[in-house]
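Hi, here's the filled form for the chain we discussed.

Project: internal
Contact: R.S.
Residues: 563
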Amino acid sequence: MRVKVNKTYYDLSENDFVAHGGEGRVYAVKRTAFKIYDDANKVIPAGKIKELSKLAHRDIIKPKALIEVQDSSGDYLVIGYSMRYIKTTYALCELFPKAFKNRKNVSDKKCLSLIAQMQETVSHIHSKKILIVDLNEMNFMVNSRFDKVYFIDVDSYQTPSYPATAIMDNIKDRHSKTFSELTDWFSWGIVTFNLLVGIHPYKGKHPHVKTMDERMQKNISVFDPNVRVPKTCNSLNAIPGNLRQWYKAVFQDGLREAPPIDYLGTHSIMPISEAKCSYSKCVAYVVTEEKEAQWDIHDYYKFKNTECLINNAERYNLYFKGRYLSAKFNVLGVYGSTLIAGSIVDDKLELYNISKMRSIKHIEVQADNIISIDGRIYIQCANNIMEVCFQGKEYDPMVSLRKVGNALPHATKAYPGVMLQNMLGTCYASIFPKEGECYQYHLPSLDKCTIVDAKYSNEVLMVVITKKGKYDRFIFHLKKGKVIEEREINDVDHSGLNFVVLNNGICVSMTEQEKVEVFYKDKLTSIKVIEDPMIGSGIRLFTDGSKVFFADKKKLYHLSVKE
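And the returned structure, exactly as it came back:
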């Protein structure tokens, strides 16, 4: 597609495609993004672009100029607008689950810093007599270092001459009939609370009031003593004191005012209290202590005979072969008995021999995404998916790359065990069952959907998508290039994917309702649900292929069902 922006022409191809949203497609060439509307009649007017130009904040990705395309008669038709392109970002809602924060090393301090940035930018927008209105979690992107947040979909903002017409239901103030700075701050509160605590302030379980809409109308939030919050969430007491007071006043007491500005560096007004579980009291499970580390265990890996425990601190702490080590990495791989850390640093692949505590020499290569599965490491390099291969001596291996699949450069994203790509609105999953193999599966149920989380293990793929402020979870059984079966669970809390698949095909999944589901991967709808007050969604499941484990603080436990 050949388009014109001002007096400059651009030829947009599928390799420039980034994503398909609710209104159209986004392409990118170098540092410029192009939003092409599906319906040209909905393109933002030039007058609104002029009014939005008052926004001078660097983190606001505002429309810059209209995009034109020449039709068959030679006339030029406006089809979209251009804007600044930011590479390698995460939707803000991806940061909500604690599991993601642990995996990506996103601390509570970083989250507070992002919240303060968002507050400062919202204040700037208001100072220009502009309202955000639809201040939902999908309209913010965070960079790969998790230290900067960008405001996107700015074309929907309300300016003096162009009123806003739409707002996501989950951030809408039920007690106001008009849009104002205060309704913006109410929505900001919901989104930032979700980032800090890991739950919508009007979610959780209330014994009588069931729906979020009714809870919002009656001001029954998670601060209500009758509301039970999942164990995956952070403690409310961990929120800085004056910010916590503001959240409670807004969500529970109906106050409407701008948030405080002096909460960075402050501490909780109350000490954090944590319930202690006695696993000997489990009704449905047998819990056996396996190992204990010097620090809290956030992850566990076992590839063949290579086993390690992981704590995601500022530097990744590992317990490996009887030693406590530190190394930064995105993924782990294994060559023989050597544990290898793989990372992408400044868009380049880095490999590190954890066993010998030294870098591994390899040909310098640009990389956009990296994953590992069963001890193998894969990277995306522009249009190609490459397997990282090792040969020679374990302590000093030779490194080579082997192409196993294709990818769209801007539209491919890595998740644990899988790469997902949006191919012009069509969703494909790239799966790597063994060395040198890659299967790509079309998943029609996810076409044109916004994906916020995914994980693959042993022929089972789970994906969380978002639509209009609600989250749905899909489960797929994938085998030899075919989608064997799928199951859809609607309107779930976005608490992170937490499941394992054993070698015998049994899948053990911790649901958003703090229940354990057990099913075979080839019988997704034949489910056994097990409830136990001692085992909740606060635990993280791991496996070595034959056993199911979970960690509680510094201890690793083996979990099995009582006969």
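Let me know if anything looks off before we file it.
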